[in-house]
Amino acid sequence: MNALQDIEIGQPFRPSVSCVVTQRQDRSSRPTPCTLDDVPTPKLPSNFRDALNDRETPAIILDGGLGTHLADRGNDVTGELWSAQILMDRPEEVRAAHQDFFAAGAQVATTCSYQVSHDGLARAGSSDQFETMLRTSVRLAREAATADGDAPARWVAASVGPYGAGPGAGTEYDGAYGLDAGELAQWHRERLAILASAGADVVIFETVPSLAEVEALTSLAKDLDLPAVLSLAVRANEQGQVVLGDGSDLRVAAKIVRDSGVWAGVGVNCCPVPQAVAALKILGEETGLPLSAYPNSGDIWDHEARVWVPGTEGNDLPSAVPELIAAGARLIGGCCQVSPEQITRVREAAQLG
């Protein structure tokens, strides 16, 4: 059943008075949320590019893991379409999840379009919903952003997932695509055109693990009217150095970004906090651009079993916010397994930073 239509939603998450949050939450229970009552609200420019470049104001707060928060709300995201299945079947849940993150202190909603591709929808027998789903993802985020008319500046970021999140079958972390930059640009082109015309404030290319994909997206970003942020997938190699997911030198990717002159910002996502900090130092040195960081909880996604497995300990994101800011982060949030409660703590830490 296709439910891509306006539906009344329930009450969003509301921060309460107490604040008790553990580093890694048990998925079967909900922690006591944090408060934003004592957190001052900065006055930011309404234009996203200006806000990103305004280093006199606190860092902009992204949302957390949309897909994993949808799961925490009781939705099944274990299928091949992941969160896109919820976008198709229960769009009111996507809107409510965005509202949860805004209520927790996020200033940017990342659309539920990461996993939406022709290929994936074709396998599910729903390829005719491709454009509708992309546009709906932006609309739902915008509705959540404007639900509170008295809220300060809020933005919508159109999420463009990598080839690995589509037909690449989970290769968004290693970039083992077997395609060149031209082929990857062709695969991304139509989806990007739709999302860029759907009413977002910024486009974020997420979890990009391949040097060829960096080249492809750079060639496409130059034609965008919206600001574009490139968020890379990184890992530590055998020598402990932070490299691109496909093993490429991160400095080579950074030089492509710098020399192109088309990116509003660059950063990393869905990696452990220590790798994010190390990567930002390299990206800052090489590009001089505003940086973004939204690490995950430290758990690891097993794309074959389609489950999260325990990963690196000692990856408390809120505690790392001062270090991320010191490394140049202007856009800070969380990726998979990062909840609204943790985003509240990120926001509080950024205000103090």
Describe this structure in words.
The chain is an alpha/beta fold and 353 residues long. The protein has a single domain, classed as TIM Barrel (Alpha-Beta Barrel), CATH 3.20.20. It has 12 helices and 12 strands. It has helices at 48-53, 66-72, 83-89, 91-104, 118-123, 130-145, 181-196, 211-221, 250-260, 273-287, 317-326, 340-352, and strands at 60-61, 108-110, 155-160, 202-208, 228-232, 234-236, 242-244, 265-269, 291-294, 300-302, 307-309, 329-332. The longest helix is centred in the middle third of the chain and has 16 residues, at 130-145. The protein is globular and about 45 Å long. Mean pLDDT is 86; it is low at 5-42.
Compact summary:
By secondary structure, this protein is an alpha/beta fold.
> Total domains, how many?
1
Instruction: Report the CATH topology name.
Output: TIM Barrel
Q: Percent of residues in beta strands?
A: 5-15%
- The residue-averaged pLDDT reads 86
Helices and strands, in order, run as HEHHHEHHEHEHEEEHEHEEEHEH
What would CATH call the homologous superfamily? Homocysteine-binding-like domain
Task: Please give the order of strands in the largest beta sheet.
Answer: 1-12-9-8-5-4-3-2
The chain-level structural class is: alpha/beta
Total number of beta strands:
12
Major sheet: 8 strands, parallel
CATH architecture name: Alpha-Beta Barrel
Give the N-to-C terminal Cα separation.
47 Å
Helical fraction: 25-40%
Low-confidence stretches: 5-42
So how many helices? 12
Q: What is the CATH C level class, in words?
A: Alpha Beta
Overall radius of gyration: 18 Å
